[in-house]
């Protein structure tokens, strides 16, 4: 999921046309759907800690944001 969204962000900030975004959006959407189905099968328990998947997702989102800011630095104003 995160790899798909990262691919879409890199293509977007790399100045690619919209067809280049399709693989990233498809992989990101499929990964999100699988994660949602897995999470729907679990019941939230009181006092439950943050899962490793949540921490990993946040870390990957931050890394993707920093990577896109770094790679898009030349075209910014």
Automatic annotation (TrEMBL):
<protein>
    <submittedName>
        <fullName>Uncharacterized protein</fullName>
    </submittedName>
</protein>
<feature type="transmembrane region" description="Helical">
    <location>
        <begin position="50"/>
        <end position="72"/>
    </location>
</feature>
<keyword id="KW-1133">Transmembrane helix</keyword>
<feature type="transmembrane region" description="Helical">
    <location>
        <begin position="20"/>
        <end position="38"/>
    </location>
</feature>
<keyword id="KW-0812">Transmembrane</keyword>
<keyword id="KW-0472">Membrane</keyword>
């Amino acid at each position: 999921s995160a790899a798909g969204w990262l691919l879409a962000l890199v293509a977007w900030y790399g100045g690619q046309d919209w067809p280049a975004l399709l693989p990233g959006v498809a992989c990101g959407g499929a990964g999100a759907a699988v994660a949602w189905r897995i999470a729907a099968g679990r019941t939230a328990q009181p006092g439950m800690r943050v899962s490793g998947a949540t921490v990993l997702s946040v870390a990957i989102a931050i890394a993707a944001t920093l990577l896109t800011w770094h790679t898009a630095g030349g075209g910014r104003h």
